[in-house]
């Protein structure tokens, strides 16, 4: 009886663990070598593999960043969270002028193909806005969600 209970518990543990196992892909040497060449000095690197891309999370110059690579090792985009004071002055001024009644809940820069895009999430009691700026061209409404 004791043996069957122990066997049953082990079976459940193994089944439960595999039910929640991640379906991650293996990161290729090509991707890792490309990352090492692009981000020399990166620290605390961790990888997440998906079917169509690989994501590296790392620290560079004391800032957490995310790099996305194709399976062929091509850098697709780099993302970094940022404080509002790190925005280009024109974008920061426009935010302060036109969105005073909102507070910033998320702000990040996405760099790809030689250009930067900025995304900011703004909230107030009634709604959540996501704005996008292509380079220094100014903010455009990307998404609006009404808060409950």
What does this structure look like?
The protein is an alpha+beta fold and 148 residues long. It has helices at 2-19, 29-38, 89-98, and strands spanning 43-49, 53-60, 63-70, 75-81, 103-112, 115-123, 127-134, 139-146. The protein has an 8-stranded antiparallel β-sheet with strand order 1-2-3-4-5-6-7-8, with helices on one face.
How is the secondary structure organized here?
Layout (H helix, E strand, L loop, with lengths): L1 H18 L9 H10 L4 E7 L3 E8 L2 E8 L4 E7 L7 H10 L4 E10 L2 E9 L3 E8 L4 E8 L2
Antiparallel strand pairs: 1-2, 2-3, 3-4, 4-5, 5-6, 6-7, 7-8
Protein name: Beta-lactamase-inhibitor-like PepSY-like domain-containing protein
Keywords: Signal
Organism: Candidatus Pseudobacter hemicellulosilyticus
């Amino acid at each position: 009886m004791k043996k069957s209970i122990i066997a049953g518990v082990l079976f459940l543990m193994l089944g439960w663990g595999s039910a929640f196992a991640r379906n991650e892909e293996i990161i290729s040497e090509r991707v890792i070598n490309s990352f090492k060449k692009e981000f020399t000095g990166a620290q605390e690197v961790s990888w997440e593999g998906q079917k169509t891309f690989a994501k590296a999370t790392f620290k560079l110059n004391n800032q957490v960043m995310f790099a996305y690579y194709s399976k062929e090792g091509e850098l697709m985009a780099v993302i970094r969270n940022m404080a509002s004071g790190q925005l280009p002055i024109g974008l920061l001024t426009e935010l302060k002028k036109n969105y005073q009644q909102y507070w910033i809940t998320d702000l990040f820069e996405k760099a790809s193909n030689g250009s930067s895009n900025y995304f900011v999430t703004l909230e107030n009691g009634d709604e959540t806005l996501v704005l996008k700026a292509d380079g220094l061209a100014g903010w455009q409404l990307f998404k609006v969600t009404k808060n409950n």
